[in-house]
Amino acid sequence: MIAKTPGESRTIMTDMVLPSETNPLNNLFGGELLARMDRAASIAARRHSRRITVTASVNHVAFNQAVPVGSVVTVDARVSRAFRTSMEVYIDVWIEDRFTGAKTKANDAIYTFVAVDDSGKPTEVPAISPESELEQERFEGALRRKQLSLVLAGKMKPNDATELRALFTAES
User: Fold this and answer.
1) Could you give the CA distance from residue 80 to residue 164 in angstroms, rounded to a whole number?
2) What angle do CA 114, 158, 150 make, to 5 degrees?
3) Per-domain boundaries in the chain
4) pLDDT digits 0-9 by tens, 85-115
5) CA-wise closest residue to 77 among 93, 55, 57, 56
6) How far apart are CA 44 and CA 11, in angstroms?
7) What's the number of CA atoms in the CB half-sphere (13 Å) around residue 118?
8) Considering the domain 6-131 in this protein, what is its CATH number?
9) Distance in angstroms (rounded) separating the CA atoms of residues 97 and 71
10) d(CA 75, CA 91)
């Protein structure tokens, strides 16, 4: 399989926050934002794998900034790393001020998707070849995040988590 770049999976979804999607403070419901991120990430994973993809986990979500009613919200998702059958998808959420047009990064998330065949069995996906410094940083971090997840789930022994050990041991 030929490796692909994160840009090949990039998915951008832009929409406006409507009153029916907000809480009593007139900010976008967190669950609504999660759904938007899941849809964009799913498309990015499918673009990368060219397979049916299913959400395996939501590894990280940061609600750093409220998203007020009337805001234009852009969800930008791309595959940051591919493993054998799974893909980590990094999502950036931007809001556009309705009065000035200024764009601000409001939130981010990391989802994991698995590619499956028509019978639902996991299937292999192409590798990722990062191009930019940010893509390389996210690519490298993905292995640490995966190993941490496996250790916490009891599926990997801490001593086998080489990327995590490297964070805490000094080299001579």
Assistant:
1) 18
2) 15
3) 6-131
4) 999 999 999 999 778 889 999 999 999 999 9
5) 93
6) 6
7) 0
8) 3.10.129.10
9) 6
10) 7
